[in-house]
Fold this protein.
Amino acid sequence: MTSNETRHRRRGLFRPLTVLASLTLALSACGAPASAPPGQGGTGAAGGGDGSKVIIGVGGQTLLTYLPTTLAQELGYYEEEGVNVELQDLQGGSKALTAMIGGSTQVTSGYYEHTIQMQAKNQPIKAFVDMGRSSGLALLVAPKNEGQIKSIADLKGKNVGVTSPGSSTDMFIKFLLAKNGMQQTDAAVSAIGAGSSAVAAMEQNQVDAAVMLEPDISVLAKRIGHAPVILEDVRTEEGLKEVFDTDAWPSASLYAKTDWLDQNKDTAGKLAKAIKRTLEFINSHSGQEIAAEMPEKFAGGDKELYAKVIEDLKKTLSKDGSFTQDGVEAVLKTQRVANPEVGDKDIKLGDTYTNDFVK
């Protein structure tokens, strides 16, 4: 193995990954289920809140980037704030967005970049609490291509797995292609979802590479028996700076149609406060304590190892739910490169997010 290959294999891997190599098969086969169809997934409604039920569509509920959305429910924070919440587990961020635009959900737990994409289409939506300061994404090479795909350029003519077309995983690969002087059509993308379906697609070599998140990355490592080859990784501050040239890149957030926010300020405030309290809980508790609060099935029968993944990913989460100007500008820059529908259009960033509800 060359030094360059070694760098790609090891770069960005979390320190606990040597321990996580023993992550049980159950986490993939049982504990990280493939996302359910709209209206059939999630962990149910939080009872006891006043007023109408708020349905939040989640862009892949088992993915740890969206952990605060589920944890807030498990801790009872939605109920304590007086809002009745139902979570719907959807296959990816783009599907969660589509459900909200179509009216089957009111709020989306998805990536902030969607607010920019929709403004470019003259459909105003606004994020009102930030959960992630990094997208938590990594571009992995499928086992069959280790030693053959060594760079982004080697993806030409290959098939790359993403959670769903139009999702943040899709935007990530498009950005990387453009950044490396390639056309977006140089590599095809295939929807592989999240959880067990994504892990299986890579393990069984159904795709040549894939953009993945935790815990799927660590599950894959266990299934193939070694750390996967990683081409790019923004789970770390070093990787975030290398790929996006920024220290903050707002990712998982709660967003809604601007009209809905204007008409439901009290409810939005309660949701934002519940998430902010959850972020404070995460910051002040260990991965083990957090894992103990999460649904049992998410841990796949091995909470100790699930907790190790959570502990390391804590660094990618927001501390207080606030967006930063530098962060949103970094996301816009990414969209201008990766998304022709945004391109050089006049985007008013002030209309895509607000910190009013987390003050």
About this structure: The longest strand covers residues 50-58. The CA atoms of residues 130 and 321 lie 5 Å apart.
